[in-house]
Amino acid sequence: MLEELEQIRAEALAKLAEANDAKALEAWRVAYLGRKSPLKQVFTQMGKLPPEERPLVGKRTNEIRREFEAAYEERAAAIRQAELRRALAEERLDVTLPGRKPAPGRLHPVTQTIRRISEIFAEMGFQVLRSREVETDEYNFQLLNIPPHHPAREMQDTFYVKTQTEDDTYPVVLRTHTSPGQIHAMRMMSGYTGEGPLPENPPPLRVILPGMVYRYEQITARSEIQFTQVEGLAVGHNITFSDLKGTLADFARRMFGPEARVRFRASHFPFTEPSAEVDVECFLCGGKGCNVCKHTGWLEILGAGMVHPVVLRNGGYDPEKYSGFAFGMGPERITMLRHYIEDIRYFWSGDLRFLEQF
Ligand code: DAH
Q1: Considering its fold, how many domains does the chain have in total?
Q2: pLDDT for position 64
Q3: pTM (2 d.p.)
Q4: Distance between start and end Cα atoms, the chain
Q5: Probe ligand 1: pick from 153, 327, 332, 334, max atoms within 8 Å of CB?
Q6: Domain that holds residue 285
Q7: How far is ligand 1, taken at its centre, from the CA of residue 232, in Å?
């Protein structure tokens, strides 16, 4: 029996040395330390032994079992080590490889245009202001000389946030243009609240007001319900139409190149008098005529005019003493012209294939 035990021991330890992974090790544990192991069988057969042999065999069996347990733990640790070394070797990182470039963000093409416009007017001494996008009917229309039911309101179909306010007077709208910023800018400078006598000597001002505007329109390749404008306003003593022309001509040269010329066509806006629409000579064909300018040689880029006396007064500037000019332009349109973009809907598509080109 003792011989048999030694045989079991030798065979088991030899097999353990051959177990090279967790699976083989587990199989070994079941075979030699489990319920059906040869050691267990020795125990069950102990009763058949002569009584004097039993203690010896029992003792040796227990010794071997402890030895197996220790050998098992040792082998398990060795296998864990080997697997760790293998994983480290296989999954080794080459830290000398160049890293992957993170995709950098970029400015939206319209933002780029607005920044360029702002830069140019800043060079000319204009402050850059922002005014609110949720506006009252009063600021968006009435203070700009567009009374309720004025036909000019049809030019700008409006998103109403609130159609009736508590005192039943001024509904709340999403601004349909940046022109209400004119009133905010003038009132900020003059301190006028809309009531009482006009302030004595409000300071002159030169500002541009870029921002988002909203119109309740059918979305097409040429019109969006949401787009940007840059409003301009200069108010002071003796500001004339020549100042407006000179400012916009200079803007065009800085924006589109030293050769760019502008032309003024008579137009109408309720908040300016006289009013004009301004074209810039087509910078794509140099005025010779192409598809983009529809063979006219000119591109319409903005509306402008001398600030209407009613509007000056609403801002706190006495029209007897002050005058001013204003203009409003569309950065989307300018961006489309500069980059041959044929559909305004690309700007809000969120399509990276489009946006990554700028
Ligand atoms: N607010 C006008 C529009 O949305 C654009 C405009 C025209 C602005 C003439 C002006 C201006 O300041 O003088 O169509």
Answers
A1: 2
A2: 93
A3: 0.73
A4: 88
A5: 327
A6: 109-355
A7: 9
